């Protein structure tokens, strides 16, 4: 094996290890903050009444990504007009889950939760989860 082949293999391994650790932390924190700054996200969660306020899963530890995918998908489908920031968050979470990126978040494909919250509580859960990764 020649030196250029070895350097190519080492570079490829480095890329794979960096990719496996990609979490999109700063991007996700920025997007959630933008949504939290929008006053329409703070209405209460009503599980029985049909309202524009969604009840979203507040994930158990180890189920964050699956619940973030489920919650942002629900928001994306129930917002008129569709919000490009929510769509971007959904696509990012889905890619992280599908590709098993971001090793710091467990990759259970099932969203498990004991409580549901309104949009603001859901977004704050995303934000605090990613701020902990950023430390």
Automatic annotation (TrEMBL):
The keyword Signal applies. InterPro entries: IL-9. The keyword Signal applies. It comes from the Eukaryota. Residues 1-20 form the signal peptide. One of its GO terms (molecular function) is cytokine activity. Keywords: Signal. GO terms for cellular component: extracellular space. This is IL9 protein. It comes from Sinosuthora webbiana. The lineage of its organism: Eukaryota, Metazoa, Chordata, Craniata, Vertebrata.
């Amino acid at each position: 094996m020649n030196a250029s082949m070895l350097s190519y293999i080492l570079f490829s391994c480095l890329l794979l290890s960096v990719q496996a650790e990609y979490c999109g932390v700063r991007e996700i924190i920025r997007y959630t903050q933008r949504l939290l700054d929008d006053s329409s996200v703070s209405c209460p969660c009503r599980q029985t009444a049909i309202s524009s306020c969604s009840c979203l899963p507040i994930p158990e530890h180890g189920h964050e990504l699956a619940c973030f995918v489920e919650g942002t998908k629900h928001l994306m489908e129930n917002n008129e007009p569709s919000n490009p920031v929510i769509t971007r968050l959904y696509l990012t979470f889905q890619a992280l889950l599908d590709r098993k990126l971001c090793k710091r978040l467990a990759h259970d494909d099932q969203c498990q939760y004991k409580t549901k919250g309104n949009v603001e509580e859901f977004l704050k859960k995303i934000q605090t989860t990613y701020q902990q990764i950023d430390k």
